[in-house]
Each structure stands twice: as C-alpha cells, then as structure tokens.
C-alpha cells in the first residue's frame, strides 16, 4: 500500500515488525512535563477480526547502551525487549497486547500503558483503533512528573482515553528519546504508518494545573482538531472532484478530436 506521506512501518503483510526512532536526545532536567504527539493510519483491515496487530509509542533512556542501535523487540506489538525503553503506549487493534492487562484473552480496539517492567498498567477501549489512509488520527500523550512519579494521559482522535494514570517503577531519566514500533502477525495484518512525531516540553503557562486531564482542556483545542479533520475530508473531496473533472475534460477533448478527424 502506498501512502502520500508519512513513515510506513508495515505493509499489510503477515509477521512484519518495524521501529522508527528519533535519535536527537531530549534533556529532561528542567521540565516537569513532556508531551508526545503524532498521527497514524492503520488500514485497510478496520475490523479486529483480521486487522492489526497495532503500534506502540515509547520513550527510551538515552543513557542505556544500545538504545539507538538495537531496534528489535518482541511481544505482540514489538515493544517488549526494546533496549532502553521504559514506558510504552500501545494502540492495539487486535487486542492481544492489551488483553494481557485485563486478564482477558483479547481486548480489541484499545489503548494500553506499559511500565518499566513491561507490565500492563491499564488498558481502555477506544472506538475503533483502525484509521483509513485518508483518516490520519492524532495521538497526544502527556507525561507529568510529580514526587518521583510519572503520570500519563492519552488522547486519541480528540477523545480522552487514559486519565493521569500513575506508572509504577517509571523514573524520568536525564535524557530520553521517543520511538514508535508496529507489528503484524499471521492472523492480523494492516498497513501501518505514522507522521509528525514530536517530543517537546510544554510552555510554563501550560503547566499551571498540570494535573488537569488533557480531555478537560478548553473545548477550542478539540474544536480545532475537529476542524482540521473536516478540512482534510473536504480537501480529499476536492482532489477527487478535480480528478473527475480532469478525466471528463480529457474524454471531451478526445471526443472532439474524433469528430474533427471525420
């Protein structure tokens, strides 16, 4: 499958795994909070019966040897065993990754947080983890450090999924980087791609009331994302209309030329 833009991790084939890692380190000493944001698409199989498996957004400790050279992992989404990774947020279509957190066989269409020992802290269902090639879904993750404890909030597609959950055993290192991995299996495949991966510290003003969940932020933020999604849909419609008009013009030109030759 071809994407117009973005970084392709899997190609709708079985048993694929890939990582994308930012290698520019981020110094955390002066920051009480860090944000991660990205867009992803996961298609064409939008049903968890055959779609997935999914992807993980993770942070790595840049002081661990091999963090930037060992890009291999294991487990359902390729996160387990990734060198230096100390926390991961899984977007799991098939449900095999998140299901372990809730002691069930599967928890399809869910988001799960893993701690430093690869234990599932929490998993929450979302309304469809899959996203078509024209439906790039935004993910926002906020990590807030308080009293040697990291709390995590996750927003997917403008909807709050995980609300300020503490991550046991996770300690913010002096320097870190962000990465994404994705994986398919013999029974669950999709073409998975990501775009606009960012790791940044919020402004001092935005740290006021930092314990406030992201999904309780001013509605203008969500309205902006809704507007962007709507503009993308309208832009896609304009492209299709342009292609149709171009084809009709070409057909008319060919018809006129045919009449002229007669």
How much of the sequence lies in strands comes to 35-45%
Output the radius of gyration: 21 Å
- Low-pLDDT segments: 204-226
Principal-axis shape equals: globular
| End-to-end C-alpha gap | 44 Å
Number of separate helices: 2
Order of helices and strands: EEEEEEHEEEEEEEH
How does the major sheet shape up? 7 strands, antiparallel
Structural class: alpha+beta
Number of strands: 13
Tell me roughly what share of residues is in helical segments: 10-25%
- Overall residue-averaged pLDDT value: 77
Give a short synopsis of this structure.
With 262 residues, the protein is α+β, with helices and mostly antiparallel strands. Helices cover 18% and strands 37% of the residues.
Primary descriptors:
262 residues; alpha+beta; seven-stranded antiparallel sheet; 13 strands; 37% strand
